[in-house]
Design a protein that fits this description.
It contains no helices and 11 strands. The protein is an all-beta fold and 123 residues long. Strands 2, 4, 5, 6, 9, 10 and 11 form a 7-stranded mixed β-sheet that branches. A 4-stranded antiparallel β-sheet has the order 1-3-8-7, with no helix packed on it. Strand 7 and strand 8 form a beta hairpin. It is elongated. The chain starts with a strand and ends with a strand.
């Protein structure tokens, strides 16, 4: 029902910036995306919710990225951007985009994940 495509990862020096983009394509007119966001996973560590943006507007951030990362809507429908500034070595991770969505009038919330994009911050 929903496919996620991510882009924008890469190698950057400490203090640099990167922007990630994520687009969700839906099939069927009954898909309603409630929220989109990003998690990250570094080697040997668990997944961390980085940022989440609800369709109604509210956004949330991990304490580790507040003030440095900004999640926003892209120019296309069902697209989000993650602007990452003042990057640190500890931001190095695979960043995965996700979408939370419902089908029709159901209240059950599904999740779909992208393949992930690598962000590496060199010191």
């Amino acid at each position: 029902q929903v496919q996620i495509v991510e882009s924008g990862g890469g190698l950057v020096e400490v203090g640099g910036s990167l922007q990630l983009s994520c687009a969700a394509s839906t099939s069927g007119s009954t898909v309603a995306i409630d929220a989109m966001g990003w998690l990250r996973q570094a080697p040997g560590k668990g997944r961390e919710l980085v940022a989440r943006l609800e369709s109604g507007g509210p956004s949330t951030y991990a304490n580790t990225v507040k003030g440095r990362f900004t999640i926003s809507r892209g120019s296309a429908k069902d697209m989000v951007l993650l602007q990452m500034n003042s990057l640190k070595p500890e931001d190095t991770a695979t960043y995965l985009c996700f979408a939370e969505y419902r089908l029709g009038s159901s209240t059950y919330v599904y999740e779909e994940w992208g393949q992930g994009t690598q962000v590496t911050v060199s010191s």
